[in-house]
Amino acid sequence: MASCNKQEERSLFSALLAECDISEVAKEFAAERRSIRIHGHSTTIRLEKAFWDSLEIMADQDGVTVPELITRVHDHCPQIDTQNLTSCLRVMCLRASKL
Predict the structure, then answer these.
(1) Domain contains 19
(2) 77 falls within a domain
(3) pTM of whole model > 0.85?
(4) Which of 8, 22, 65, 89 is most buried, taking the most CB atoms under 10 A from its CB?
(5) How far apart are CA 89 and CA 73, in angstroms?
(6) How much is the pLDDT for 35?
(7) Is residue 91 a part of any domain in this protein?
(8) Are 58 and 99 contacting, i.e. CB atoms less than 8 angstroms apart?
C-alpha cells in the first residue's frame, strides 16, 4: 500500500515537472510584483503568477479586492512581519488549494 502511494506521488511530481516545459503553464512560474497599500503604507509583493491567481480567486469568493484580502492576511497571520508576508500568502494559497 505504501509503495502505491509513493508511485502516485512520483507520478504527480513527474506530471508537474513536465508542465514546466509547456510555455503556457510556464507563465504561472513567472514572478510578478504588485504594489499595494496596507493600512496606508505602500508595499511591493513579489509572487509567482500562480499564487496571484489563487489570491484573486479567494478575494473574489470573499467579495473583496486582492489588496483587501492581503491586508486581512497581514492582520491575522501570527508570524507576520515585513519579511514573511509573502511566505504567509503562499501558505494560505497552498492551504486553500487543499480545501
Answers:
(1) no
(2) yes
(3) no
(4) 89
(5) 7
(6) 97
(7) yes
(8) no
Residue 91's domain is classified under what CATH number?
Answer: 1.10.3990.20
**49 is in which domain, residue-wise?**
28-98
Give the pLDDT confidence score for residue 22 in this predicted structure. Answer: 66
Report the number of distinct structural domains present in the chain.
Answer: 1
Residue 1 covered by a domain: no
Please determine, for residue 4, whether its predicted confidence score (pLDDT) is greater than 70.
no
How many Å from the N-terminal Cα to the C-terminal Cα in the chain? 25
What single letter denotes the amino acid at residue 26?
A
What is d(CA 25, CA 81) in angstroms, rounded to the nearest whole number? 31
Give the largest CA-CA distance in the chain: 54
Tell me the CB-side half-sphere exposure of residue 56, using CA atoms within 13 A: 8
